[in-house]
Input
Amino acid sequence: MTHSARDRPRARRIAAIDARRYDRSRREFLQTVILAGSAGLLGRTNRAATDPTPGPSVPVPGNVPLRSAIEMRDGVPQMVVNGRVEAPFLLFHGHVPGTAAATPNPHQHLVGPDVKQIELSRDAGIHLHTFDVMVWWPHDQAAPDYSGVDAELRTHLAIDPQALVVPRLHTNPPRWWQERHADQGMLYEDGRRQMISVASQQWRTEAEEALRLCVRHLEKDFGNHVLGYHVCGQSAGEWVYDESWTPRLPNFEPPFRDGFRAWLFQKYRTRQALREAWRDSRSGTSTLGHFAFQEHKDS
Output
């Protein structure tokens, strides 16, 4: 398959998104999904430095790809869009109706406050937006369904044709997946399960695939209006363990135990090195996954 010069930057981004990686740590996994979510930045290692310029950026005319990056300038990270430094102010709003109609509307109560916020932002010259997107999850042989996010983006662009968006892509699996893989859920001290375990290799693999498919779709249909992607997970999409603000303790599930053991082995290599580092003659990779409850609570 060949690409014209116009299509090559996007083709490189898609190729980078599709690159598979295996046997990675939790930190490496998060780095992977962040890179996958930053499709607008991939394949752009050579960027010409430009002086900051005033005014909001808008999609470049024609079929020239949108170019966006976070660059270090004057010792601080700055957002650069189409060669222009932008103030990183984004309107964070809720869902908009899946229609292509903005005001005027004969039934004003159907418009909703989020539509009005987009209109007010547009009129004030603010075109950078972010909002939540529930990522479609691969399910048996079912075809991907992005009709919801497509309708929302079309509505968004009907209201503000100059909009540049940063979708917040949520990677928490759907209920049917959690029910099918109950052993992959985060286990709390009282025996309850809620969020997915961040140590679950099965979830990581399928979440990466779900992200790849979603980003590929959005780049194909809306790429020149997508500034970047915010990859979300756990409570509120902020990578915070659910109920971490309470005394309840999580991470008693087998995936976390096994992941912790693997990390211990990778870091210390020998039981003696582990015992010396922890100052505990009883320590070993086979026992640390089974802390007594009080020891776990006090650690």
About this structure: The chain has nine helices and nine strands. Strands lie at 68-73, 76-81, 84-86, 91-92, 128-134, 164-170, 185-187, 193-196, 230-232. Residues 69 and 236 are 25 Å apart (CA to CA).
